[in-house]
Structure prediction request, 281 residues.
Amino acid sequence: MSTPPKPIDLAALRQEIDRIDEAMHQLLMERGDIIDRLIEVKKSQETGSAFRPMREAQMMRRLAERHKGILPLDTVESIWRVIIATFTYVQQNFSAHADFSAGDAQMRDSARFHFGFTVPLVPHMGAAGVVAAVSESRGDLGLVPVISSVSAGAWWNALEFDAAPKIIARLPFVERHDHPAALPVFVISRVADDARATEVEVWSVRVSGWSAKAAQTLTTLAEFLAVPDRAFDGAALLVTLPSNQSIHDIAQHLGKAGATVRSMALVGSHATRYTVAADKA
Prediction:
């Protein structure tokens, strides 16, 4: 006669959950103690923004790569984003200025998913207002949809100056087909040079002779936004270049397509987009 299986001890399982919950809380408080020490070190050894775009991108990639089990990746990513954003806020208070001109639902979801509720969220009706607010701040973030309407104009022109903030990240950090905060967003701020993510460059390019042929040529080479530029009787472009492309190569290809590059300025950079396979998402 076979021995019947022992009944599951629910009380014991719940005790295990309580033990794990307490351990996670203790680790968070321990992380807070380390951040407190980090703040003291930075006071004497480091100045500038607390943002570390490259480090954040690397942390999120490692998170996605090691994750497994029944807990959705969405939940884990959201928890880690709140932890990272909140501890950054503790180091140096900042607000997130967001462009709500295309509707607030998706932008609000993106802002709260990536930065939580501790970081103040300031709405603006247009990308230009976001850039102006970040430019006037000591260390705030700006959130602008990657795909802006033509009516928004070439908001990125304001990032061309040396003292201006720059594009430092592209959200979401971990992309997948069903991401709960999937709106592509540029993050604008000031960060230390050694903290930048430089895998992808973002350039402001002004051209004359812009045409359907020039647009088709550029489409095969890089991601870009284009709006009319009356100053050059052409277009103002925001061009995102992968690491294997040079802005000078882009200029040559545009020239062959009949467009003349009048000016170009590096207005930011960010980490390579990390995409999770559908079977792991």
User: Anything to note?
Assistant: The chain has a mean pLDDT of 89. The two ends are 45 Å apart (CA to CA).
